[in-house]
Amino acid sequence: MISARFFSILEDRKGNLWFGSIGSGVYYYDGKTFQNFTTKEGLLNNEVTSIYEDKKGNIWFGVSGGASRYDGKSFRNYIIDGNSMNEDRTGKTFPNRCPYEVNSIIEDKKGKFWFATRGNTFTYDGKTFSVFTHNDKPFKNVRSLIEDKKGNIWLGGFDGLWCYDGNTFMCFTKNFVGYILEDEKGNIWTSSQRDNSQVWALFRYDGKSLSDKKPTVTEIKSGGNGLFGILETRDGNIWFGSMNGVYRYDGKTVTDFKNKDNQK
Asked: What is the DSSP string of 15-77?
């Protein structure tokens, strides 16, 4: 029985499951057996905070100290060194926790990669890493990145919720944002703190009003002192986690799967 503490999960295009743990590396499950990848196999660090599959089928792992890319045979590692990030070809790995970790990884429609870290946010064109800036200031401590259907990049973190269309920036809230999701209707969902308080809530930004300076925002559920991953299922329900359990929102009612009373 695996007793590791897991922080991220991915189902790849072949139906295999990847589980990122804090301290025990990555577990891979092909439907029959488990395989464990750690620094011994070339993973940069055993604290895995995010997992992403790119267009070519490579699996990326955001870890403490940088990122690792797995092509099915071996790892290529990319290390954060202060304000810069670069590929390492020496086989270096980190046995302990590092100052920075990669919180989120995406590949945009143009093939450029984005890395959100506790330090700078980086872009990578396959050859060179660049620091992503706004008004000559780097975006720091970004926790979540997504690209929406229109190709806009959304960034959520300590500086709030931002949208970048390739030319201009728009800030939707200055409150801390942990996770971002775009649903099938084009609405943007976030888990974020409410009014600079320690209380977290699930918010929905109406997709039809996102071009407005003051879009329609609906608070769906207060989550106390923490809300975590957000997922839309094929039936259109929104699932989200908290420190108190798992919730489902069907468009009208929030169901609490830990509270027997299923209180809204």
From this structure: S-EEEEEBSS-EEEE-SS-EEEE-GGGT-S-SBEEEEEE-TTS-EEEEEBTEEEEE-SS-EEE
